[in-house]
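Changelog note: in this version the structure field was regenerated for every chain. One regenerated record is shown below for reference.
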Amino acid sequence: MSDTPTTTRLDSALLKLSAVVVAGTITAMLDMTMVTVALTDLTRAFHAPIATVQWVNTAYLLSIAMVIPLAGRLAERFGTRTMWLFALTAFLAGSLLCGAAWSVGSLIAFRATQGVGGGMIVPLSMMILIRAAGPERRGRVMAIAAVPAQFAPLVGPLLGGLIVDSAGWRWIFYINAPICLLALLLSYRGLSDDGRREARHLDLTGVALLSPALALIVYGLSRTGTPGGGLLPLAVGTALLAAFVRYALRTSDTPLIDLRLFTHRALAAASALNFMSRLSIFGALILIPLYYQQVRGHSALTAGMLLVPQSLGTMLALPYVGKLTDRIGARPVVLTGIAVTTLGALAYTQVTAHTHDLILAASLLVWGIGIAAVAVPVSAAAYQGLPPTAIPGATSAITMIQTIGASVGAAVLAAILQNRTAHHPGAPGAAFADTFWWILGATALALIPALLLPMQRASEPRTEAR
């Protein structure tokens, strides 16, 4: 009798491969969360405003967004092993350059370089493990692959705060070096060479239009309300985006992002919801450590510790949210999650320099539960009714939109904070409270796409959601 998924064991070779891949993946994910607690130190080190320094995060996120759709095609052309080694090397080189940065401009440029490697690491890790596991062991291997995503938000701010306080901000980048070198060594010896594959068309026209479009739009939004404004880059970026849409809908080749996929209602709703939720989540991830450091006077380590309740709330809620989604469908769970998220964020719209830490910790715990109640059902609902052949393209599109939402959130909310700080001289708490209202507004706007999510469970016959 053939083995079933429950009896087929994970052999030692597959476990070793999983360990190698997780070692590489966790480095990139930790780096993203560690940097958020270092922004205050970066503003001091480079004598730059937060609206400029936040581009250390935004440049990284935009770079990731651009390479995610290319990762699969490059792997098909050059092989997953070759591209995995390239991604780790690019991330290592970018990390070392970031640590050696001499100005905020150089740090931003080097973060974009680091993002090229970081953006490829996650999708390549999934390709490697899925191919090695086979269908009968895929679920358990994907559970292992999910460890970095759950581990990084909890540990990243703590580790980042500890490093910044004890060794300085440069070491949040230098610490990547030994982990990357170990992952490179293990990967070089442990990954099999799948050889050169049949070359597929790389949509260079799409990259040339979409990459500068997104960068200019985000830059323009971040400059709105400042002297000189951001109208010109915003206008140019919008024109390039319109040109990409026209090109993507007319080309006979497979475009960088297949916009025709968004005629599928569930995918379109999930993508819009992902954009709005990532905007508010990552915007909060920028603002909350800054509030604790700049208003409350806490160290980077303390700020990282005070972020733990949010990650804890998400981790505690994840198993229950998944079961509830399977039982009653995505839409009611997401609507409840948005309500819970709004409740958790509300306390931060009232913050002062003396708001009790226990109130803020409880609010973050609730906020984290709400995040889980939105993220899990949306991920499941996005693919409901899609043909299997459309899933890879849909995955690239959703991941790209999530990352763009995060970069817009970081850029726009940092600009709003700077503007509100100028309106509240000597009262930084009021400036943060004003800015958190914008996060609450973005969370409320997520209700619109949430109402368009499928109402029925995925296992039921597909009918049009009402």
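Spot check on this record: The mean pLDDT is 82. The chain has three domains: 11-193, 204-252, 261-456.
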